[in-house]
Design brief:
By secondary structure, the protein is of the alpha+beta class. It contains 17 helices and 17 strands. It starts with 13 loop residues before the first helix and ends with a helix. The strands form 3 sheets. Strands 1, 5, 6, 7, 8, 9, 10, 11 and 12 form a 9-stranded mixed β-sheet that branches. It has 2 domains: 314 residues, Bira Bifunctional Protein, Domain 2 (BirA Bifunctional Protein, domain 2, 2-Layer Sandwich); 89 residues, Anticodon-binding domain (Rossmann fold, 3-Layer(aba) Sandwich), CATH 3.40.50.800. The model has no long low-confidence stretch (mean pLDDT 93). Bound molecules: histidyl-adenosine monophosphate. Histidyl-adenosine monophosphate binds next to β7, β11, β12 and α13.
Length: 432
């Protein structure tokens, strides 16, 4: 019986695992550069954790299960609720601001398509307990720092930034009620991802009043922050939110990444818990799928029963990122080694097989990476294996060993060969 892999999942054979490690190593290095500490949580949580504040879209995409005790659980579709729960549990013991990062494996029952799968990895960075917009700037900086380190330039990617606080006051000023906002956000978030007619139909369903729809469209046509700040009709609250955004752009300029960022009132975010600055990073090549998304969520910890503590952060998935890195020639198959061996041992004579095992073990016990051929006898075949293994050096137990107990050590890059006695070679590895 042949059982296929589950739809929307990936098998990581060694070459794919090398790519995943390359991406994750880059994420971790960027997090550490900006002073974040790593954490992790369980891969499943109580189902209701995602039904309370993440929004309908995530709730509909949950993989849920019932355990033997009848508890309703779900595999994590995102990390932020787990983070909020964990921080709440130790809120009085943790020094603030809390700057944490994680690379969880997440599952969402989405329709699998280019850049969207049912299981993926997502880099999360979050800052908790820092109200100032400086924390939002740090999160954006760290994400851009990683993308720059991966080789992407301001010609390749753009960070689109807006503010839900600002949008809320603009929408309320044109007549929307507070309780209509969440529904309208969910529709506006879809605008760039679906055809115009489908968007119009959704907007009409959420806002049946044509006059209000016209006003919402006008609000959403603002292109520059300056246009907004000069608008006389701006409420005090909207003015404060516009000023906050301006300060964010100033900080990003001081951090040296202004060419990567732009204001875009169309960025609303799909998740329900965002309260302030929101942002998404896109490929300038107009892929409708975001590389990354995040923003401020000042009420999530208190919504989960904790004290009122502010928070901001972002999540970046590995799928869209890998596609973009490949498109830009920044990741080529075969570029990344699947293993890094220091030594590969071959024997010219099958009677030396035991010696190879002994030497390999001694090399490994001295902390070096070593493997050897199981094929005794045929030196040509073994040397081919040595070459394929990608080892830096090959050690040949050959004629020289049978005659003089000398190992031949060949540097695979330069082709240079040297000879050493068994003990002298092992001593050189111990650094003694
Ligand atoms: P999100 O917008 O749902 O935000 O996801 C963030 C990123 O995760 C997306 O931009 C995308 O790169 C990746 N992603 C999401 N769904 C999939 C999928 N099905 N397949 C592949 N990649 C996917 C959040 O998850 C927030 N919790 C981020 C956050 C952290 N906000 C504050 N802190």
């Amino acid at each position: 019986m042949k059982i296929p892999a589950v739809k929307g999942t990936r098998d990581f054979y060694p070459p794919q695992m090398a790519v995943r490690n390359f991406i994750v190593d880059g994420w971790k290095a960027a997090s550490l550069r900006s002073g974040f500490e790593e954490y992790d949580g369980p891969i499943f949580e109580h189902l209701k954790m995602y039904q309370v504040k993440s929004g309908d879209e995530i709730a509909e995409q949950l993989f849920s299960l019932t355990d033997r005790g009848g508890r309703n659980l779900a595999i994590r579709p995102e990390m932020t609720p787990t983070l909020a729960r964990m921080v709440n549990q130790q809120i009085h013991a943790l020094p603030r601001p809390i700057k944490w990062f994680s690379v969880p494996r997440l599952c969402r029952a989405e329709r699998p398509q280019k850049g969207r799968l049912r299981e993926f990895f997502q880099w999360n960075i979050d800052i908790i307990g820092a109200e100032d917009v400086l924390a939002d700037a740090e999160v954006i900086f760290c994400a851009v720092d990683y993308l720059k380190s991966a080789g992407l330039t301001a010609k390749d990617i753009v960070v689109k930034i807006s503010s839900r606080k600002m949008l809320a006051s603009l929408l309320e000023a044109v007549g929307l009620e507070d309780n209509q906002l969440a529904g309208v956000y969910a529709v506006l978030d879809k605008k760039a991802k679906i055809p115009d007619e489908a968007f119009e139909a959704m907007l009409q369903e959420t806002l049946p009043d044509a006059a209000i729809r016209g006003k919402v469209r006008k609000v959403m046509s603002a292109v520059r922050l300056d246009d907004l700040s000069q608008a006389a009709a701006l409420t005090e609250q909207a003015k404060a939110a516009v000023d906050e955004l301006k300060r964010l752009f100033d900080l990003l300029e001081k951090m040296g990444i202004s060419e990567y960022v732009q204001f875009d009132i169309g960025v609303v975010r799909g998740l329900a818990y965002y309260t302030g600055v929101v942002f998404e990073i896109y490929d300038r090549g107009r892929s409708p799928r975001a590389l990354c998304g995040g923003g401020r969520y000042d009420n999530l910890l208190s919504d989960f029963g904790g004290p009122k503590v502010t928070a901001t952060g972002m999540g970046m998935g590995d799928c869209v990122l890998e596609i973009l890195l490949r498109e830009k020639g920044l990741l080529r198959d075969g570029d990344l080694p699947t293993r890094k061996l220091d030594y590969y041992l071959v024997t010219a004579d099958s009677s030396l097989g035991q010696k190879a095992v002994e030497l390999a073990a001694a090399i490994r016990l001295r902390g070096r990476r070593c493997d050897f051929s199981y094929k005794g006898g045929n030196l040509g075949k073994q040397l081919k294996q040595a070459d394929q293994s990608g080892a830096a050096k090959v050690i040949i137990l050959g004629e020289e060993y049978s005659r003089d107990q000398m190992l031949v050590i060949k540097d695979m890059k330069s082709g240079q060969q040297a000879q050493a006695g068994w003990e002298a070679f092992l001593t050189s590895l111990s650094g003694a």
